[in-house]
Structure formats: C-alpha cells, structure tokens
Amino acid sequence: MNQPIAHAELIASYKKVAADAAKKAALILTSASKGPGVIKSVSETAAKAARRRDVIASKLAKLGVALPQ
Q: Which domain of life is it from (predicted)?
C-alpha cells in the first residue's frame, strides 16, 4: 500500500470514529433522565469510542500527519 493511500485511509477512519465519538458523547446528555444504569452504560460506550478515536489519532501523529483541532 502506498503511504498517501494509507494516510488517506487512516484520516477517513479518524473522521468516522471522531463523529461516532461525538454522537455517543451527545447521547450521555439525552439519556440523563433515564436513570443511573443507562447513564453508566452510555458513558462506557462513549469512553470506548473516544479511546478508538485517540488510538487512530496517535497512529496519525506517529506518521507525522497533523489533525485539525
């Protein structure tokens, strides 16, 4: 695989995972009235999505690709 293609695929993956993490973080606010069990499970899911985002961001950083904040 070419490096530019690999970078593009990682960037696309990052954007997808970042959007998913943002969506799941927003779900925490909407589930606030559902009870502590629901809040806990939604928070754990959002944390996993954020970890996936951070892993891909660190891979991109190792390759020297700067992501916009």
A: Bacteria
Contact at 8 Å (CB) between 19 and 44? no
Q: What is the C-alpha to C-alpha distance for residues 38 and 42, in angstroms, rounded to an integer?
A: 6
Give the 3-state secondary structure of residue 15: helix
The dihedrals phi and psi of 33, each to the nearest 5 degrees, come to -90, 0
pTM above 0.90, yes or no: no
Determine phi and psi for 34, rounding to 5 degrees.
Answer: -85, -15
Residue 57 token pair: 């961001």
Residue 59 near residue 28, CB atoms below 8 Å: no
The CB-based long-range contact list for 40-48 (8 Å cut-off, 24+ gap) reads: 46/21
